[in-house]
C-alpha cells in the first residue's frame, strides 16, 4: 500500500532528525522535526561530521526550546571511551548538563555510570550502538534507568510491537537512512584492519568495498538505504515512541527533504502524487536504492546492492542514443521525466564501473516536443519550451546533454538518474536565526534593595543544587553573587514607575548566559535610582555571577574527576608465569578432545557457547568437558544475538541446564544479562554466576565498575583495544579482567546472508561444516581476506588471519594480567589444530624464550593504537 493511501492514526509519535551541524539542525526544526540529535567534537559516533561546539549546542537548544511547540535536543555521547579520556569525558558531560539539553544518548557503560552518579538530572537514552535487539535487553535498560532505547535496525514489526508494549520505557526506531551490514555496535572490521574504530566514530566503511573469489568481485556487504514510508501507520499502531532519520553526515538540504517527507506522512496530509514527488527529492539529493530491510519479515533478501556503490539519484529517463558530432563532441539524448536545467547532475549505471558515472549538465539542448515524437523539423515544441540551446528543459522534451570528454561507453537503454537538482536546492529554504539570538539561559533570582544611602543587589541561580550528584553533595553551595554601591538617592516622583524601571533594567541580560526568573524590589522609601546606575550594578553583579558560576563548575568537575579516578590494583607477589591462569572458550566442545593432562594445567575455566537449539547432544558435550576439568570450572555462554523467535528455546535451555546445576554463565549483551537474571529469579533465587564477555565493551575502569556492579564476577577486555589502554585497565582491575590473546574476532555479525552470491538458497537450514553451508574466503580490492561463516543463516565475518597476542604475553603478565583467554569459535578447527595452537600459546610459561608470533595471525590495534 502506498503511504499516502494508508489510514492515519493521530496518536503522537516523535519525528527525530539528524543534525551533523548547526545548519542541519535549523533545517530539521524548520521542516517539522519534533527533536534533533547531534554530536560533540569528541565522543560522537560520527566523528567526521561537522558536529557541534558547546556554543552551537546552546544555540540550537535555545532555538528549539523557544518554538511555539517546544522541540527537543538530544546529544550523542555514543562512543567507547578509553581510560585516558575519562577526564575529558567528565568535562564534556558537565558542559552538556549545564546547557539544558533534553537527553544524552550513550553507548559506553562508563559514560552511563558517570551520568547516573554525577549528573542524575540528565535523561538517558540507550544508543543503538549497545546492540539491544530483544525484550530482555530493553527490560534491563529500563531497570538501569534508561528512559529510551534505540533499537537495532534489524528488528521485525512483530518484535518492535512486542518491545513497545513494555511500560516505563520509550522505544526509538530508525525509519530512514544508511544501513550497516553488521549489527550496530558489533562491527570491528574497520577497527581491527585499520585501527579506525566504528565504535569511536571513525569507521572507514570497508563494507562498501568489493569482495570476491577469483577475479569476480561484488559489493557483497554494501547495504541499500533503509526507507519505511509505507510502514508509518503500522509503526504508530505498534506503539513506538520515536521514528528516527539517520544522517549526521548528510547535508542540511538532505535533512530538510527527509524531515519534510516524513513530517507530512505522519500528519496525514500527503496525497499519493505529492508523496512520490517528495520521495524523489530525497533520492535526488542523496540515496542508494531503498529497502524495508526486515520490518515485514526476517527473510528479506533484497537488502544488498551488489553491483554499484554510492549515491544513485532519482531515475528520470533512459539513454536513447549517444550522438557523435563532426566536431567530436558527444551528446547524451533522452526524454527527462522531470524538468532539467544547467548545473543539474546526471548519473548512469555503466557495466564494469563500480560506481555510477556522473557529470554536471553544462550544455543543454531541446530538440523536440513530447516523449515519443520524432525529432524532425516542424515538430511542435512542448508547451512553454524553446528549441536549441537552453538553460532549462521541461519534462517530456527530447533533449541532448553534452558529455564530458572522459566519459565511458554508455549503453543505450541505461537508466539516467538525476543526482543533483538546482530547483530542489532552491525549494528547500529554511530559517537561520541571527548568531547569538538564541541560547539556553540559566534562570536567576534578583533581589534589589534601595535605600537613601546606596543600592545592594543579590543574584542567585535557580535550581543549581538539583544538578549535583552524590560526589558533589558536600561541595560548594548555591551559585550567588552580591554587589553594593553607595549613593545619595532622593524620593522618586512616581514610585510605581521606579519599580518598573528597576524590573526592566534587571530583565535586560543581553549576551550573558542568564535570564531573570524573578526580580524582587525592596525600596521602602521609594528612592529614585538613575537608569545608568541600575545598568552599572546589573553588569557588575552578572559579571560576578558568571565568575561564581565558572568557579562552581570547575569545582564540580574537579570533584567528579576525583570520584572517577581509578584505584590501583595490588597483584599478588608471585612470579608472572606462576600467576597466570587460563580461560578457554569454544562453540565445539569436541575440539578439546585432544587435550592431554598437561594441557589442562593452569586452566581456570572453559566457556562453552550454547547454541540457540541446544538439545541432548549439547548437554552430553558439556558433560564430557566437565568430566575432564570439573563441573565447577565449566561456564556456559549465551550467543551474542538472540532474536525473539529464538528466545523460547533459549529460555527452556537455560531452565533445563540451570536446573541441572549449571549455574556459571557468560553474557555478551544486555539481553543475555536480562535472561540470566530472570532465570535466577524463576529458579527460586538460585545464584547464577555471570561473567561479561567482550561485546559489552569495557575500555575504561568506570565501565568495568558498572559491569561488576550489575553482578558480573569477571569481565573480558575488548580485542578492539590497544596495548597501552589494556595495561592501564590491568593496573585497576587485575584478576577481575581476562585478556583475550587468541581469537577469530567477529568483524561483523549480521542477519544478511551473502551466500546467495555463491549459489546458496537454504533459508534457515545452514549447519556449520555441512556441504553448501559454506565458509567462503572473500578478498577485498585491497587484498584483505575475510571468511564468512554461516550460523543458521546468521552471518559472522572473521579475518582470515586470527587475532593473536602471543608475542605480547610476557608484557601483559608484567602489566598485571592474571587471566588470559583463548577462543576457538566460528572457524572450523580440528582437535589437533586446537591443541597445537593452545600449546604454542602456553609455551611461555614453560620457557619465556619460546614466546613468539603464531604464523598467519595479526595483533589488531595492540601496538598501533586505537583511534
Summary, kept brief:
With 867 residues, the chain is α/β, with parallel strands linked by helices.
Which structural class should the secondary elements be placed in? alpha/beta
How does the overall form come out from the CA principal axes?
Answer: globular
Compute the average pLDDT. 90
Radius of gyration: 32 Å
Helix content bin? 25-40%
Low-pLDDT stretches = 1-9, 371-384, 768-772
Which sequence of strands runs across the widest sheet? 1-2-3-4-5-6-7-11
Determine the strand fraction and express it as a percent band: 15-25%
Count of alpha and pi helical runs? 21
In total, the number of strands is 40
What kind of oligomer do you see? Answer: single chain
- Cα(first) to Cα(last) distance is 45 Å
Report on the structure:
The structure is a single chain. This protein is an alpha/beta fold and 867 residues long. Helix 5 (135-143) crosses helix 17. The two termini are 45 Å apart.
Amino acid at each position: 500500500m502506498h503511504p499516502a493511501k494508508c489510514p492515519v492514526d493521530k496518536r503522537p509519535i516523535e519525528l527525530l532528525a539528524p543534525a551533523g551541524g548547526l545548519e542541519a539542525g535549523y533545517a530539521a526544526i524548520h521542516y517539522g522535526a519534533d527533536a534533533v540529535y547531534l554530536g560533540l567534537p569528541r565522543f560522537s559516533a560520527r566523528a567526521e561530521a561537522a558536529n557541534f561546539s558547546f556554543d552551537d549546542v546552546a544555540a540550537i537548544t535555545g532555538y528549539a526550546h523557544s518554538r511555539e511547540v517546544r522541540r527537543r535536543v538530544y546529544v550523542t555521547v555514543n562512543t567507547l571511551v578509553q581510560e585516558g579520556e575519562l577526564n575529558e569525558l567528565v568535562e564534556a558531560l558537565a558542559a552538556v548538563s549545564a546547557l539544558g539539553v533534553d537527553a544524552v544518548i550513550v553507548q559506553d557503560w562508563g559514560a552511563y555510570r558517570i551520568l547516573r552518579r554525577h549528573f542524575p538530572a540528565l535523561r538517558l537514552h540507550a544508543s543503538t550502538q549497545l546492540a539491544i535487539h530483544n525484550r530482555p535487553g530493553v527490560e534491563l535498560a529500563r531497570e538501569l534507568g534508561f528512559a529510551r532505547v534505540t533499537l537495532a535496525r534489524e528488528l521485525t514489526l512483530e518484535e518492535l510491537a512486542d518491545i513497545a508494549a513494555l511500560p516505563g520505557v520509550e522505544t526509538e526506531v530508525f525509519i530512514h537512512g544508511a544501513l550497516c551490514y553488521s549489527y550496530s555496535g558489533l562491527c570491528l572490521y574497520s577497527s581491527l584492519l585499520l585501527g579506525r574504530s566504528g565504535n569511536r566514530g571513525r569507521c572507514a566503511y570497508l563494507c562498501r568495498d568489493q569482495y570476491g573469489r577469483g577475479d569476480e568481485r561484488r559489493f557483497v556487504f554494501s547495504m541499500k538505504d533503509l526507507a519505511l514510508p509505507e510502514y508509518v501507520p503500522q509503526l504508530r499502531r505498534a506503539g513506538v515512541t520515536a521514528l528516527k532519520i539517520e544522517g549526521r553526515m548528510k547535508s542540511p538540504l538532505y535533512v530538510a527533504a527527509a524531515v519534510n517527507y516524513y513530517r507530512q506522512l505522519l500528519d496525514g496530509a500527503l496525497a499519493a502524487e505529492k508523496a512520490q514527488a517528495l520521495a524523489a527529492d530525497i533520492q535526488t539529493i542523496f540515496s542508494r536504492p531503498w529497502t524495508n530491510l526486515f520490518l515485514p519479515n526476517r527473510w528479506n533478501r533484497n537488502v544488498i546492492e551488489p553491483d554499484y556503490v554510492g549515491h544513485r539519484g532519482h531515475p528520470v529517463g533512459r539513454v536513447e542514443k549517444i550522438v557523435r558530432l563532426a566536431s567530436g563532441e558527444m551528446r547524451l539524448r533522452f526524454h527527462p521525466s522531470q524538468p532539467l536545467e544547467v548545473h543539474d547532475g546526471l548519473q548512469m549505471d555503466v557495466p564494469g564501473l563500480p560506481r555510477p558515472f556522473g557529470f554536471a549538465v553544462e550544455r543543454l539542448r531541446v530538440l523536440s516536443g513530447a516523449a515519443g515524437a520524432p525529432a524532425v523539423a516542424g515538430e511542435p515544441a512542448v508547451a512553454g519550451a524553446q528549441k536549441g540551446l537552453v538553460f532549462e528543459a521541461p519534462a517530456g522534451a527530447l533533449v541532448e546533454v553534452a558529455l564530458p570528454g572522459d566519459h565511458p561507453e554508455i549503453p543505450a537503454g541505461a537508466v539516467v538518474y538525476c543526482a543533483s537538482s538546482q530547483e530542489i536546492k532552491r525549494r528547500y529554504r529554511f530559517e537561520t536565526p541571527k548568531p547569538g539570538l538564541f541560547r539556553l539561559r540559566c534562570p536567576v533570582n534578583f533581589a534589589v534593595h534601595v535605600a537613601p544611602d546606596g543600592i545592594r543587589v543579590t543574584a542567585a541561580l535557580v535550581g543549581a543544587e538539583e544538578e549535583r550528584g552524590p560526589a558533589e553533595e558536600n561541595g560548594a553551595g548555591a551559585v550567588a553573587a552580591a554587589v553594593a554601591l553607595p549613593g545619595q538617592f532622593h524620593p522618586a516622583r512616581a514610585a510605581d514607575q521606579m519599580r518598573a524601571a528597576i524590573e526592566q533594567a534587571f530583565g535586560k541580560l543581553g549576551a550573558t548566559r542568564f535570564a531573570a526568573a524573578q526580580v524582587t524590589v525592596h525600596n521602602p522609601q521609594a528612592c529614585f535610582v538613575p537608569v545608568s546606575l541600575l545598568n552599572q550594578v546589573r553588569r557588575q553583579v552578572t559579571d560576578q555571577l558568571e565568575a561564581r558560576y565558572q568557579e562552581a563548575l570547575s569545582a564540580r568537575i574537579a570533584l567528579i574527576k576525583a570520584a572517577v579516578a581509578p584505584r590501583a590494583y595490588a597483584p599478588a607477589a608471585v612470579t608472572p608465569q606462576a600467576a597466570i591462569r587460563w580461560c578457554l572458550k569454544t562453540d565445539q566442545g569436541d575440539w578439546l578432545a585432544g587435550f592431554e593432562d598437561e594441557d589442562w594445567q593452569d586452566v581456570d575455566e572453559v566457556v562453552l557457547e550454547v547454541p540457540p537449539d541446544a538439545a541432548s547432544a549439547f548437554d552430553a558435550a558439556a558433560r564430557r568437558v566437565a568430566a575432564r576439568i570439573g563441573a565447577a570450572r565449566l561456564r556456559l555462554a549465551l550467543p551474542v544475538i538472540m532474536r525473539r523467535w529464538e528466545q523460547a528455546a533459549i529460555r527452556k535451555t537455560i531452565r533445563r541446564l540451570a536446573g541441572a546445576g549449571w549455574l556459571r554463565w557468560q553474557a555478551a549483551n544486555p539481553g543475555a544479562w536480562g535472561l540470566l537474571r530472570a532465570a535466577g529469579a524463576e529458579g527460586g533465587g538460585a545464584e547464577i554466576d555471570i561473567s561479561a564477555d567482550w561485546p559489552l565493551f569495557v575500555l575504561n575502569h568506570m565501565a568495568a565498575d558498572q559491569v561488576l556492579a550489575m553482578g558480573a564476577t569477571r569481565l573480558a577486555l575488548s580485542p578492539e583495544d590497544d596495548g597501552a589502554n589494556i595495561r592501564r585497565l590491568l593496573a585497576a582491575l587485575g584478576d577481575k579482567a581476562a585478556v583475550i590473546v587468541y581469537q577469530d574476532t567477529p568483524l561483523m555479525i549480521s542477519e544478511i546472508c551473502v551466500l546467495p552470491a555463491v549459489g546458496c538458497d537454504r533459508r534457515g537450514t545452514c549447519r556449520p561444516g555441512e556441504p553448501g553451508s559454506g565458509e567462503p574466503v572473500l578478498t577485498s580490492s585491497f587484498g584483505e581476506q575475510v571468511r564468512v561463516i554461516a550460523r543458521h543463516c546468521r552471518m559472522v565475518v572473521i579475518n582470515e588471519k586470527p587475532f593473536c597476542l602471543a608475542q605480547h604475553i610476557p608484557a601483559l603478565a608484567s602489566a598485571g594480567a592474571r587471566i588470559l583467554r583463548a577462543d576457538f569459535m566460528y572457524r572450523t578447527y580440528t582437535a589437533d589444530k586446537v591443541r597445537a595452537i593452545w600449546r604454542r600459546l602456553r609455551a611461555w610459561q614453560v620457557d619465556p624464550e619460546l614466546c613468539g608470533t603464531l604464523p598467519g595471525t595479526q595483533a589488531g590495534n595492540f601496538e598501533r593504537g586505537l583511534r
